[in-house]
Amino acid sequence: MASHIVGYPRMGPKRELKFALESFWDKKSSAEDLKKVAADLRSSIWKQMASAGIKYIPSNTFSYYDQMLDTTAMLGAVPPRYGWTGGEIGFDTYFSMARGNASVPAMEMTKWFDTNYHFIVPELGPEIKFSYASHKAIDEYKEAKALGVDTVPVLVGPVSYLLLSKPAKGVEKSFSLLSLLDKILPIYKEVVAELKAAGASWIQFDEPTLVKDLESHQLQAFTAAYSGLESALSGLNVIVETYFADVPAEAFKILTSLKCVTGFGFDLVRGAQTLDLITSGFPSGKYLFAGVVDGRNIWANDLAASLSLLQTLEGIVGKDKLVVSTSCSLLHTAVDLVNETKFDKELKSWLAFAAQKVIEVNSLAKALAGHKDEAFFSENAAAQASRKSSPRVTNEAVQKAAAALRGSDHRRATNVSARLDAQQKKLNLPILPTTTIGSFPQTIELRRVRREYKAKKISEEEYVKAIKEEINKVVKLQEELDIDVLVHGEPERNDMVEYFGEQLSGFAFSANGWVQSYGSRCVKPPIIFGDVSRPKAMTVFWSSMAQSMTARPMKGMLTGPVTILNWSFVRNDQPRFETCYQIALAIKDEVEDLEKAGINVIQIDEAALREGLPLRKSEQAFYLDWAVHSFRITNCGVTDTTQIHTHMCYSNFNDIIHSIIDMDADVITIENSRSDEKLLSVFREGVKYGAGIGPGVYDIHSPRIPSTEEIADRINKMLQVLETNILWVNPDCGLKTRKYHEVKPALLNMVAAAKQIRTQL
Ligand code: GLN
Ligand code: ZN
Asked: What domain of life does the native source organism fall in (predicted)?
């Protein structure tokens, strides 16, 4: 009877770590205070897993910031600019790498596979000298042991670490990161030796890059790495853990032939082919860590279905070699359902957060061993059945409407250049029109107003009055700045997805369902549990109010279906695309209502479209197809003179540029200034783009105020590759996180730059 957890959330059930970190960073509490909160969290997690009966309990999955950064610290791979001079890496150096300090900016951060978690990207060059500089793994192992819990220390595997790194600045592109393998293995050996000496009998290496499309020399690195570690690992049981997709057949073969590995962890939730691979050849005598409990979602497991899958697997790998596990670290799900007091009993019975998933894993392991907790299983079966048949989940009309979408492409009848002409007649914009992305600074006062309205402390009338004043202020400011296409500033929204989710049917909101996004930052994704519909208009009231305040065009502002989907916990009882189509239909109704209300420019944000791109190339075309289709559904019904904008955030667009074109928006504003104008290179290489396009002219993530010259320079660069009549001038993204004293001069300079160039054309 064996159960295993790949990893566990660090933040705590009430985001205790977040508050401790931020208070430490603000110098309101000491390092000792922070360490105490962290130790308490770790201890309660270990004890919780131990008392649930989990056999393989992870340690070293806690982190003050990020597990990749922890590995960088372990290897002493500190970039020289942080001035670290050796010795054990402390908070100073660690948090400087994570967050920057007064004189040096932070290391780059990027998304962890296709999750919303972000890791700190190691920067490695040929000169780097590695040294064992953080004993965190061993300290955590001993700490748990002292509490009476024997854990499985978890390390980011050496090959994934290197494959997820980037060459340091100034190092030529041809530099092979994998050439550093021989240099990091000695450190891994030291760590392993210490863990062994401290009494560890199992050790887990996370090698999630194995699920990607790797080249053969990259795959060979796994063989090289683990045979290099073989002598160090002797006498230890080794798990190599993979997650987020199945392991491609070639990689599976290489992985399962690693001699020093005792057990292999696979994601059986997302790994569509894994079962076939295991059936067709799992090495005898090795352990299978079967990830049947979903670490990426909040749904209660279908225990009966999992049990039957596990029994099949038992037939293949043998009774004593099967370990029940989670599909990936529980880091990517919410922490504990006990703190959810707002949910009704039925909805709650459909859910499982990390703490509940631990119990599920263990109950499956017990059932396999013949100690099935009948009451627990039948309760679970009843919840599964109620979810299947609940009228809260199913809305026949929505199902029908979504099914009727098939067979049509949903394209606007007229082509984009004719539409732009028609729109220009109505809008009469100057060349290089200026605009912003939607939100204006969210002041403390604004947040207070929204909070008090929600808590019914102020009346609807007072609330409307306050928001109206704010919109008026933002409109007047934009007129003063002489911006061409205005926004209302989004003062009524705390979040671009939550705002819509709260007004759509089929969504639920947790009180504490936080998931770490990066560092101390967490997000609380809405839960889509049922068919999605729009009971009534969501934005028309505010948008028409804003339009009535100005003669200039006011953009209606919506979040697109793909972004709503990608930033929510999505139902697992129908394919993602079906849910997306349903949301698209709801947004379509909103678009048409805005048009009827006289809004001539409507922006439908698809900030997260690139984010949802599947990890495996073979699945990407299908995703892009339905994602782009969903976007088109929202606006295929408007007249030619209604101008549809979309906006996309920082991401790599180059490989999806054809899909972006296929969205067929009239204008796209797109983040650009942090990616070294990589975006423009696509156009330089000859991709034809006929619609309006506004690559951001300055970075809104920084408080820095860009000068007119600098912005003009950027615009001129863009004009070298883009036609004058399609270029728009706008910031990178919304201004919500900035202060007015930053926004005003920055926009002033932006408009001045546009005007200056107009006179030169
Ligand atoms: N319209 C949104 C805003 O300006 C877009 C935000 C985003 O792209 N993340 O805030
Ligand atoms: Zn953005």
From this structure: Eukaryota
